[in-house]
Structure formats: structure tokens, C-alpha cells
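Researcher: Quick test of sequence recovery. C-alpha cells follow.
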């Protein structure tokens, strides 16, 4: 049999249209028997005799099967081949089975395209397959036949295959849908392979289109859930978590998303259990979309009878279609107007709930040309909201702790700092979002002096707030003893160490067992009479002084160890002169690099303070520090000094004999008259002066000095060269002496003593009585 003879011609439906004599010799069937029959039936009928073949059949003879284009039809030729062509194998039973499977069972739609990329034939086996378009596709261009999203691009890809011969396989293409509320657009995996004749010329294309909509949607849902799990929950407050949620689902899952959270939950309160009250108030915590019914932050109850309110009663998500006749829209006109203007047509409402407690509700909308939600999307929305609810609850618990910490930090002592007459004080405070432990205090001291304290606890949250409260209490207690800065820090560190040891002795299950009281602290005491400032610091950066002439310098205050450290290093104090009109800046470590350091980017702002109001400088620094600051509280205490007028101070050296007391009383009486002090206060002051001077003569050492200071209080000070500490004695009735300090303690508002390098100073303070009102006796 000559090689290349055409034996059989088969149409696109797999039926024999020509059966040559050579085919009869080869297969044993006559033309009358074969024409019109399915080729698969003929092949299965071969070999029915006892020898396994029909008379004259040569089943091992090689044949070649190839497609040919006849007009607009594709047919299949079976040719005789004595030997396989180069690169080809002889047709076998397996080849026939493959052809049969492709035509009858392939999940992909096979299309034969002519040279104009028009559908020449749609194999008959595919026409009855579910999902096949009802209209006849023959003669249509392939890209338009399936309403592809970008037909021009698809035509260009097919033309490239036809021209170059390089096949394109498994290309994902989306078909548009006419109805935005319908079942959704389809996604196809499209492949193009060129048809060639024996000479290698292009005759057209075989295009296959496999519907992979469900697989792609499943992949999309998995990717959405992964994105939600990865990006939602990074924030530590409820509002941030809700913003992360809408960012993750818009536009990947919905074109519009609204998150509404119960108002009490936003403030850290315990969420209610189902069923909830109908008038429960919710806050719009986050929104993404073109048109919003209410602004973010708006607080209002959900209208009754709406899907949103019903979801909060049974915690069941709902798929809702939206149309012009949707009844529940009338219950919320503002929301109905926003839905109409945005073109929303499909809605899923899902609860934010955890363990039967309601946190809020999430509304997912699809609008305009987006596909309508399907039932499968409800499960996805529920999974998204389940993860979001867990994150919201975590943020709620953290916010509750943060609110408690902030409240404790604000209210746990003391509430109001002193406002000294010789110093203008202004505080810059940028709290850490996680709740830090920085604080500052301004404490009035005897002799018109002022103590400035800045501290920073090395922890966060409630533990930091409690530690701040303990340390502030200790600072105020120690300041009342009129200690120098170095001694105050030493005693404060001892107090913190004892408290830390007590915490360490608690049972392991107690949260305070693991808490440390380590903290930094800086103390400065300003004297407006001597115009000096004594400073000591425990771990915090060096303070900065800006002098009236515009020069600035870091004050040479040696560093001391942190409070409660095991180190036995001292807290050395330094005394510097601060002229009238100087500005002192003290801050936490977070402010050192940017503001207090000589090379800090914001140091020029501090250096240029001059006579500007301190609140103005604070606001400017706050704006500059708002972005890019390090973690932790940023606190800077600004203080501008002023001298106490000389005419409000009486300083008098005293002899160390019996003449000292009468001399001191006369000088005090004259100065009190000059100041216009009332008679009762003046009499009491003379008695205090007499007792303090007498006590200094009996128990002290020269030199002696009297000083009266008129400020917010009337202060009497007597200094001597002895280092012995005064103490109150309770004399017996028959004793003639020993009542001096007892009398002073009874008459004065408060009294005390402070030690310095040249001895000690005993002081007593009295409040000034206001002058009597006109027309009333004094």
C-alpha cells in the first residue's frame, strides 16, 4: 500500500464520510458498512474472529491521522504509512482512545478558528455541555463570542500564535457579565495552538476554553483570608483594628465596607451578651467607599427592623439584595440615600462577636459593576469577622488597661503642682501610645525656692502608672524634709529598692512579683534670692540652660545610677548660677537626641527661646516632635527663672550673745511694718524670731544670721554654723527652758531645718492674712 494514500475521512463529529478501498483491505469493513458510522465503533469492532482479527485485516500496519480544513469545517484524514514519519508514531489503539476522549469527555471547550480568528467549528460533543452559550458561535470572532473583558488584547494574543506558531497555554481571561446583580462573571483558562498543513503553513487555531471560575474564586477567598490574618490586628486600639479591616477587604472582597462598634467597647468596657438592648449605641469606627451615610466617629443606635439591628440580636450573618423596593431602607433615610448614590446592589451583614458577646457589626457592600455576593461569600465574611472580632477584643482589653493606667497616672497623687512666683514653668508631654511612665513635678520649698523634678519609669501600662504613683509620693514626702537634690535622690533610690525587694518576695503568681521599680530621675532646686540652681540626676540626660544673653550650655551635672539599682555609686550634686531670665530645660531620654543634645536637630529652637513665651516654644517643639520620635513618653520641663525683689528680703547678721534676740526682734518688727503685715501675724513672727535666735545661741555655733522672706508665705530663717539637728522637746510644767521649738511648731504653719556646707538653717513659715475688706474691722 503506497505511503500517504488517504484511507478514511472523518468529520468533526467522529463519523466516517469517506472509506477508500485501501481502508477496506486494511480494516476489513466495506464502504457500505463504514460510511456514516462512528469511527470509534468501527475500531472497537475490529478483530472479532477466532484469530483476533477480521479477514484481510492488517492491524499492525502504520497509519497517520491528521486534521484538515475543508472550507469552514475541520476533518480528520487517516493516511497509510509504511513507516512512521520523522518525529511521528504510527496510529495505535491508544491514539484512537485519545481522540475519542478529547471529543467526548474533555472538560475544556474546543474551538477551531480560521485565519480570521472566527469560530469555524465548535465540536459537537461540547455543544451539549452545561454552560455552553445557547446562540450559535460559528462565524463569530472568538474574543467576542464569550464577551471577554478585553477582546482586543485577546485577539492580539491569538494573532501572535497564528503568526508565530508558538502556543499560548493556560491564560486566565475574565468574561464580563451584563447583570451586576447576577451570578457573577466567569473566568476561563484559555489556550491557543496553531493548525498547520503538511507544508507547515498556518491554517487556523485550536482554542480551548476551560471554565475555572470556582477554582479562581476559591483561591481568591483563601488569599483574602490570608491578607486579613496578616494585616488585621497590628494596632493596639479598637479604631486602628477597624481601619486595618476595611483596608484589607476593600476592594478585594467588597467595594464598600462599614465597621460599627459598640460605644462601650471603644472605651474598653465589657461587651454585652446576646440579646442586646434595641437602643444600644454604636460608633462608626471605620469606612471605605465612595459615599458615607455618617462620618467616622458618629455615635447613634441602629434603626430597628434593619438587617444590622437583627444581626445583633441573633449573631447570624445575612446576605441581602438591595433594590428600590427594599422595605427596611425607609427606617434609615441617610443610609438609604448613601446606598442609592453609591449604586450598591448586594449586601452582607455580619456580626463582630466573641463567645456570645457582641462587639459590633460589619456591612459589606458590592456596588455598580461588581458581582453580586453569593452564598459562599457569607462564609468568607463570617471568617473575616471572626478574626476581626478576636483582634477587636484584644485591642479592647489593651485599651482598658491603658485607660486604667492613664487614670492612675493622672490621679494617683498629686493633682496640682505649685505655681511659684519666681519661676514660669511649662511642660511639653507627648505620651507613648502604649502608655509610658514619665512624670514631672514642681514643688514649692521654704525660702521662696522651687524644686523641679523629672522622672521616667522603664516600663509601660498599669505597672508603670503604679510605679509613678509610688515614686511621686516618695518624692513629695522627701521634699517636705527640705533635702538637697543629692540626698533626696539617695533616699528615693533606697525607698525604691525596698519596694522592689518587697515585690520580689510576693508569690510567683502575683503580677507585681515580676515588676521592677527601676527609673530615671533628675532634681533641680532653684533659689531666687541667691540666683543659683542645685542639680542632681539619676540616669536622665543633662539639663540645658539658656542664659539671658542667648548663650546655651549643657549643665555639668555628673550622672548618677538609676533609682533602685544595686550600684552604690553616689548622686553627685552641682550648683550653678542662673541669672534672672534664664531658661532651664530638663527632659526624658527620648528628648535628649533631638532637643537637649548640642547637635540635636531641634536644639536651635531651644537656643532661640530668648524672651518668647514658654507655651509658644512648647507648641513649636511639639509640632516638630510629633513625627519620628522614638518609643516612650517624651517629656520636657521648661522653666524661666526670675529673681525675688531685694526689698522683699531682710538679711541680718547676728552676734552670738544675748543681744542677738532683741536685735533680731527690732529688725523684724520694722521690716514687717514696712511690708504692711497685720498685727497678729507680726506679733507671731516676732515670737518665732525670738525663739529661733535663742535656740541658735544656746545650741548652735557662730556665725548667726537672720533672714525674713516675703513671698507666697512669710518665712523666718535663722542660720548658724553647727551641724547638730534640732528637735522638739516636751518640757515638764516646772521646767523653765526647752520649749523653744515646741512653741515655734505650735505657731508656724510648718517648720523644718536643712543642712548645708557651712552648718544648718532652721526655718518656719506662716501664711499671709489677706487685708480686711473695706468697711469691716480688721
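Model:
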Amino acid at each position: 500500500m503506497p505511503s500517504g494514500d488517504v484511507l478514511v475521512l472523518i468529520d468533526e463529529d467522529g463519523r466516517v464520510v469517506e472509506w477508500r478501498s485501501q481502508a477496506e483491505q486494511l480494516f476489513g469493513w466495506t464502504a457500505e458498512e463504514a460510511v456514516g458510522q462512528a469511527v470509534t465503533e468501527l475500531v472497537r469492532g475490529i478483530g472479532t474472529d477466532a484469530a483476533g482479527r477480521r479477514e484481510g485485516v492488517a492491524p499492525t500496519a502504520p497509519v497517520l491521522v491528521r486534521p484538515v480544513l475543508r472550507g469552514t469545517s475541520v476533518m480528520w484524514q487517516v493516511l497509510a504509512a509504511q513507516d512512521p514519519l520523522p518525529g511521528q508514531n504510527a496510529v495505535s489503539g491508544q491514539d484512537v482512545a485519545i481522540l475519542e476522549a478529547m471529543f467526548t469527555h474533555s472538560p475544556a471547550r474546543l474551538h477551531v478558528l480560521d485565519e480570521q480568528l472566527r469560530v469555524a467549528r465548535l465540536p459537537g460533543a461540547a455543544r451539549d455541555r452545561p454552560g455552553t452559550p445557547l446562540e450559535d458561535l460559528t462565524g463569530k470572532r472568538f474574543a467576542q463570542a464569550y464577551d471577554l473583558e478585553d477582546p482586543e488584547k485577546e485577539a492580539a494574543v491569538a494573532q501572535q500564535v497564528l503568526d508565530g506558531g508558538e502556543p499560548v497555554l493556560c491564560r486566565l481571561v475574565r468574561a464580563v457579565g451584563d447583570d451586576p446583580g447576577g451570578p457573577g462573571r466567569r473566568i476561563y483558562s484559555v489556550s491557543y495552538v496553531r493548525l498547520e498543513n503538511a507544508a507547515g503553513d498556518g491554517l487556523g487555531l485550536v482554542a480551548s476554553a476551560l471554565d475555572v471560575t470556582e477554582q479562581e474564586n476559591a483561591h481568591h477567598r483563601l488569599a483574602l483570608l490570608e491578607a486579613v490574618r496578616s494585616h488585621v490586628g497590628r494596632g493596639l486600639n479598637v479604631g486602628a483594628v477597624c481601619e486595618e479591616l476595611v483596608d484589607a477587604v476593600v476592594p478585594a472582597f467588597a467595594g464598600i465596607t462599614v465597621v460599627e462598634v459598640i460605644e462601650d467597647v471603644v472605651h474598653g468596657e465589657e461587651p454585652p451578651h446576646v440579646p442586646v438592648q434595641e437602643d444600644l449605641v454604636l460608633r462608626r469606627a471605620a469606612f471605605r467607599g465612595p459615599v458615607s451615610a455618617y462620618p467616622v466617629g458618629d455615635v447613634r443606635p441602629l434603626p430597628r427592623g434593619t438587617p444590622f439591628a437583627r444581626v445583633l440580636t441573633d449573631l447570624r450573618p445575612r446576605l441581602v439584595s438591595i433594590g428600590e423596593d427594599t422595605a427596611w431602607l425607609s427606617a434609615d433615610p441617610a443610609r438609604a440615600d448613601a446606598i442609592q448614590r453609591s449604586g450598591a446592589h448586594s449586601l452582607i451583614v455580619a456580626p463582630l462577636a466573641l463567645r456570645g458577646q457582641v462587639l459590633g457589626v460589619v456591612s459589606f457592600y458590592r456596588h455598580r459593576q461588581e458581582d453580586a455576593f453569593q452564598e459562599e461569600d457569607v462564609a468568607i465574611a463570617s471568617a473575616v469577622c471572626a478574626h476581626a472580632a478576636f483582634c477587636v477584643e484584644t485591642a479592647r482589653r489593651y485599651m482598658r488597661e491603658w485607660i486604667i493606667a492613664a487614670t492612675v497616672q493622672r490621679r494617683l497623687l498629686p493633682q496640682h503642682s505649685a505655681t511659684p512666683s519666681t519661676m514660669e514653668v511649662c511642660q511639653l508631654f507627648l505620651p507613648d501610645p502604649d502608655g509610658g511612665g514619665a512624670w514631672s513635678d514642681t514643688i514649692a520649698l521654704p525660702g521662696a525656692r522651687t524644686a523641679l523634678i523629672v522622672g521616667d519609669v522603664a516600663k509601660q501600662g498599669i505597672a508603670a502608672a503604679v510605679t509613678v504613683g509610688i515614686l511621686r509620693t516618695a518624692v513629695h514626702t522627701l521634699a517636705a524634709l527640705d533635702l538637697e537634690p543629692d540626698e533626696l535622690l539617695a533616699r528615693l533610690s533606697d525607698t525604691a529598692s525596698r519596694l522592689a525587694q518587697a515585690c520580689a518576695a510576693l508569690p510567683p503568681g502575683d503580677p507585681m512579683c515580676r515588676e521592677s521599680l527601676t527609673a530615671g530621675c533628675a532634681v533641680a532646686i532653684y533659689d531666687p534670692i541667691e540666683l543659683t540652681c542645685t542639680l542632681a540626676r539619676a540616669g536622665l540626660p543633662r539639663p540645658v540652660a539658656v542664659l539671658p544673653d542667648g548663650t546655651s550650655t549643657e549643665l555639668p551635672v555628673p550622672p548618677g545610677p538609676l533609682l533602685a539599682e544595686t550600684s552604690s555609686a553616689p548622686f553627685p550634686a552641682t550648683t550653678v548660677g542662673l541669672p534672672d531670665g534664664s531658661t532651664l530645660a530638663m527632659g526624658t531620654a527620648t528628648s535628649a537626641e533631638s532637643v537637649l543634645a548640642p547637635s540635636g536637630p531641634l536644639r536651635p529652637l531651644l537656643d532661640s527661646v530668648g524672651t518668647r513665651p514658654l507655651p509658644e516654644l512648647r507648641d513649636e517643639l511639639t509640632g516638630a516632635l510629633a513625627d519620628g520620635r522614638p518609643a516612650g513618653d517624651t517629656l520636657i520641663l521648661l522653666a524661666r527663672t526670675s529673681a525675688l525683689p531685694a526689698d522683699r528680703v531682710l538679711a541680718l547678721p547676728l552676734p552670738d550673745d544675748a543681744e542677738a534676740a532683741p536685735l533680731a526682734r527690732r529688725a523684724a518688727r520694722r521690716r514687717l511694718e514696712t511690708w504692711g503685715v497685720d498685727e497678729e501675724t507680726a506679733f507671731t513672727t516676732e515670737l518665732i524670731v525670738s525663739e529661733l535666735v535663742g535656740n541658735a545661741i544656746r545650741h548652735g555655733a557662730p556665725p548667726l544670721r537672720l533672714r525674713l522672706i516675703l513671698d507666697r508665705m512669710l518665712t523666718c530663717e535663722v542660720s548658724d554654723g553647727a551641724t547638730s539637728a534640732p528637735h522638739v522637746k516636751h518640757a515638764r510644767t516646772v521646767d523653765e527652758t526647752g520649749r523653744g521649738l515646741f512653741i515655734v511648731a505650735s505657731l508656724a504653719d510648718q517648720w523644718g531645718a536643712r543642712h548645708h556646707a557651712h552648718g544648718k538653717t532652721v526655718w518656719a513659715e506662716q501664711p499671709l492674712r489677706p487685708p480686711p475688706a473695706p468697711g469691716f474691722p480688721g
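The CA atoms of residues 713 and 762 lie 16 Å apart.
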